[in-house]
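Researcher: We plan to redesign the surface later, but first we want a full-length starting point. Tokens attached.
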């Protein structure tokens, strides 16, 4: 499935993009900007990386850089007389639009962590959504300088948010920051280098120089799941990449993703994604 590189026009006197979308939403595409998307009018199927789900009015999503996505409205939102009847508001910004180190200063550590999580797509809910939506709706009507200060208010809410869900499997668009040398970053390096082979707890402990207890506690705190669960999700996420690419058959996808046999692959894939690998490929195609 081909991914288009579609970018909104950034005006020369503006450092980031605020755009009200009232034409047909863009097809399966990606871009280097982070993107906060608020659907003001629409219903249909949302595809973000290897995540497929229904969406409705009020959908509020944060996307990381180069994360492929599409909002496909139901046929009821297309009319021969009125044209497309969906609407949305989009805010886009590059990681360095405020300078190369803005998001990396100590005061922005929580916001920077959220932007890293956005590589998997983030869906907001509850109180975070209630606080963000008025700001997103209002930012369209503001002057250039007012938009900037409003965006800072949005950043503050994002940095404090706990009401969100990560959408993609970790193996689909897992960020990796090679300049960091913490034990957890070393663990991630080991996982990304070995998930197609026999990645195991003994190998990680040897690589990170951590005790079994310290590693398991730190890993679950950072990633909200056990090491074994994470490895499975990494493999399934990577398999989704291969399924979307369409160049390999199901068996080849399984073995290239680190599964030893096709039956285990089918079972684990359905357990995590809710559908079989074949059904997943059909959904995208």
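Model: Full-length starting sequence:
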């Amino acid at each position: 499935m081909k991914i288009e590189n579609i970018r909104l026009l950034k005006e020369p006197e503006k450092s980031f993009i605020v755009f009200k979308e009232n034409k047909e939403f863009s097809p399966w595409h990606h871009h280097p900007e982070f993107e906060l998307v608020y659907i003001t009018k629409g219903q249909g199927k949302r595809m973000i990386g290897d995540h497929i789900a229904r969406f409705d009015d009020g959908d509020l999503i944060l996307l990381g850089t180069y994360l492929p996505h599409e909002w496909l409205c139901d046929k009821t939102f297309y009319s021969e007389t009125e044209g497309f009847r969906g609407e949305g508001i989009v805010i886009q910004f590059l990681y360095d639009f405020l300078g190369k180190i803005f998001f990396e200063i100590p005061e922005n550590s929580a916001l920077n962590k959220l932007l890293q999580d956005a590589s998997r797509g983030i869906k907001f809910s509850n109180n975070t959504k209630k606080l963000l939506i008025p700001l997103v709706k209002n930012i369209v009507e503001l002057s250039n300088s007012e938009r900037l200060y409003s965006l800072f208010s949005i950043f503050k809410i994002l940095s404090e948010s706990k009401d969100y869900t990560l959408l993609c499997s970790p193996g689909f668009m897992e960020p990796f920051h090679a300049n960091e040398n913490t034990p957890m970053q070393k663990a991630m390096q080991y996982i990304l280098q070995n998930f197609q082979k026999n990645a195991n707890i003994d190998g990680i402990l040897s690589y990170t120089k951590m005790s079994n207890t310290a590693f398991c506690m730190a890993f679950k705190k950072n990633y909200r799941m056990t090491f074994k669960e994470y490895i499975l999700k990494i493999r399934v996420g990577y398999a989704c990449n291969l399924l979307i690419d369409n160049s390999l058959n199901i068996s080849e996808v399984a073995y290239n993703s680190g599964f030893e046999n096709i039956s285990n692959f089918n079972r684990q894939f359905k357990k995590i994604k809710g559908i079989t690998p074949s059904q997943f490929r059909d959904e995208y195609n």
